[in-house]
Amino acid sequence: MGATVVTGIGIIAPNGVGADDFWSATLNCDVGIGPISRFDASDYPVRLAGEVTNVDVERLLPNRLIPQTDRVTRLALLAAEWALNDADVQLESRPEFGKGTVTASSAGGFEFGQGELEKLWSKGPEYVSAYQSFAWFYAVNTGQISIRHGLQGPGGVVVTEQAGGLDAVAQARRQIWHGTGLLVTGGVDASLCPWGWVAQLSHGRLSTQEDPHRAYLPFDVNACGYVPGEGGAILILEDAASARERGCRVYGRIAGYGATFDPRPGSGREPGLRRAIETALADADVSPVDIDVVFADGAGLPTGDRDEATAIERVFGTRSSGPVPVTVPKTMTGRLYSGGSALDLATAFLALDSNVIPPTANVTELSPECNIDLVLGRPREHELTTALILARGYGGFNSAMVVRADA
Fold it and tell me: What share of the chain is helix, strand, coil (3-state, %, to 5)?
């Protein structure tokens, strides 16, 4: 099996739109979390979110798409367009079935669905849009991206919450191995509407803090939950040989991947994250000493943070080169669900390209249960060749991905 490389990146995030703006904001430690503006959240116990506010999404898309798409799909369409432009790929010159799409989603089109339910209750079924039949669905981003760009090859959607972005890229990587020349992949989520908000509140993991700089503090002694957000990243995957042949820019390669599922709660068994990490390292044929930086999941809850820190320490604690640097740049955006791990993956490639580890924002005092080398406050210059990205999805999903700068 040949190497699978990333040739394009499209980012749409609360603290930056487009890869360049996002990377600059991330290195400046610009926090994109703030009071919710998309609806009146004053009567809810949680009032902060990471919103994409600095782009007129509707203006950048064809008018015909607006009535049939939810906000999540509009964000995904823009990120996909930017990723394809970044890859400088001529899709029309590729085989009809040699290009496909695999995306991740955790919610589908919640806002669209809420609007149609309101019409059903207030006016009657004849006022419900026919587009409701697909605009709410988990696979809608895959479908709309495929239609817009003529991607008639393999298609799919992965629904594993925060782990989904990595899982979708792994599935796209398999399709490259099977002979598909190009895959558009990644994850974008957006469910900042009253219906989506109530769904997110139901599991009790959101932070009720009202200070954007103190609400989401993974690995901190004051960790009290997380702040949700919207957005994510879309990446273009190609076979390394084909990418070299057309002379395009290569950000790096997907070197290894592992996924596990946590044991039943109360079983007393170890969570599955460590096994996912070890599987990804083995798949990449690297050892712990080869990893230059870990992009952590960063649950923002004491138990989740402790479990992740323990997994990292068990894998990397004995390496002779010293502790591995760990970072959680999503402290600037909030947790974006399936978009979060895809954004971390894109950020890892930008870090490899710059030899800079982005910082973790807002965290000031590490919990004594989290014995990790967390990069705090400001970027850390560091020679980077290999990165590990971790993601944990609500319900027990664990994913780990190793990426390398060399193609």
Answer: 35, 25, 40
Fold of 4-246: Peroxisomal Thiolase; Chain A, domain 1 (3.40.47)
β-pair type (397-404, 252-261): antiparallel
Name the DSSP letter for residue 193.
S
How far is 292 from 312, CA to CA, in rounded Å? 13
Helix axes 140-149 and 71-87, enclosed angle (nearest 10): 40
Query: Quick check: 104 and 187 in contact, CB under 8 A?
Result: yes
Which of 35, 38, 31 shows the shortest CA–CA distance to 16?
A: 31
Would you call 67 exposed, middle or buried from its count of C-beta atoms within 10 A (0-12, 13-18, 19+)? exposed
The CATH superfamily assigned to 256-404 is Thiolase/Chalcone synthase (3.40.47.10)
Per DSSP, helices labelled H in 123-226 are 132-135, 140-149, 164-177, 194-201
How far is it, in rounded angstroms, from Cα 182 to Cα 234?
13
- Model confidence at 407, in pLDDT bands (50, 70, 90)? low
Q: Which three-class secondary structure state does DSSP give residue 109?
A: coil
Using alpha carbons only, give the angle 238, 242, 245 rounded to the nearest 5 degrees.
140
185 by DSSP, 3-state: which?
A: strand
Q: How far apart are CA 398 and CA 379, in angstroms?
A: 27
- Residue of 134, 138, 137 lying closest to 161 (CA atoms): 138
Contacts of 86 (CB under 8 A, 6+ apart): 7, 8, 9, 10, 19, 236
Of the candidates 48, 358, 43, the one whose C-alpha atom is nearest the C-alpha of residue 216 is 48
E-strand spans in 28-71?
33-35, 48-50
State pTM to two decimals. Answer: 0.96
For 174-210, write each residue's pLDDT tens digit.
Answer: 999 999 999 999 999 999 999 999 999 998 999 999 9
DSSP string, 263-279: PPTTS-PPPSHHHHHHH
Question: How many other β-carbons are positioned within 10 Å of the β-carbon of residue 282?
Answer: 13
Q: Check for a shared fold between 4-246 and 256-404.
A: yes
Annotated domain spans of the chain: 4-246, 256-404
